[in-house]
Amino acid sequence: MRVRAFALAFTALTVIAAAPAAAQAQAASPAAKTAYKAPRTPFGQPDFQGIWTNKTITNLTRDPKLGTRNVLTPAEAEALERATREQVARADAPTPPETSVTDLKNANCGPDGISGFNCGYNQGWKDPGSSVIELYGEKRASIITSPANGQFPPRKAGVQRAANRAMPARTDNPEGFSLGERCLLSFGSSSGPPMLPLMYNNTYNIVQTPDEIVIQVEMVHDVRHIRLNSKHLPPSIKQWMGDSIGWWEGDTLVVETTNFRPEQGLRGGNINQKVTERFTRIGPNKIAYQFKLEDDGYEAPIVGEVAFNRENGMIYEYACHEGNYGLENMLAGARAEEKSGRKVASNASDADGEQ
Length: 355
What we know:
single chain, about 350 residues, alpha+beta, three-stranded antiparallel sheet, 5 helices, about 20% strand, globular, disordered N terminus, disordered C terminus
């Protein structure tokens, strides 16, 4: 949905006059980004505790039309946000009473992505937000800040993705489906690391102790444990969400994660993967979240930034498999296709739910 909304809005931007050359250039990262002083916990740490959300309509990768420019003009940002509001209003409109399950007008999920009849999710299930990322007074065009073009770097020749090595054909057995489809781990990279927004369930609860920081992830009720001032486990011990250790650099929490399981990784990453995250509270209601992903399969690291904004309320239980007949039905359908002589798709799943 976000990709489609971004594309529609950017088409509308062609009627906007070009911004001055100075505004078109990529803004340099501020050296002294904020003078805000985070409150302290009773044991002296910067206090990040509470409920936060990273929901945004800013895509992980950048519209190629923007090139190396990652700061939107006010007019561009407003056009994107207005297009999203209009899309949500269309999707929230009542379904015509004459519409039936055989109505094919939305068979391709319509002009607004996965919403409407015959599609996986209607608007009532989605909550991707309606604003682009705002950090340090800048409206961001993509989460990825490096490479400079906001795209994934090229893959190294001959390096196969870990997901393809670790998973069988998609419908051979339950293990062929993605971790999110099997309710083992959040869809996409919601739990991370890196922790990235999806089309819904973008809420996190941070709890701190003197020796550990725990992040409860709304999606698939994942829980990240970050051990402070510790050492990594032996490389032979692979864990969901990897092995995270953290330390403080001033008011910034730095987290380094290694030892990922081969089934997990951003867009089917590789086995030797390391993610370094930096959490900095830059206001009473905002955390600047930066990540650097180093992956043996890419020719360069991937760097990005996301805003975590204070959220009112609480996280409710995410119940995944209760009453979920999806896997059983998909496997049964594949066996029926085999019996009929039809070729069954054999590629591993990339159902990651990202922007």
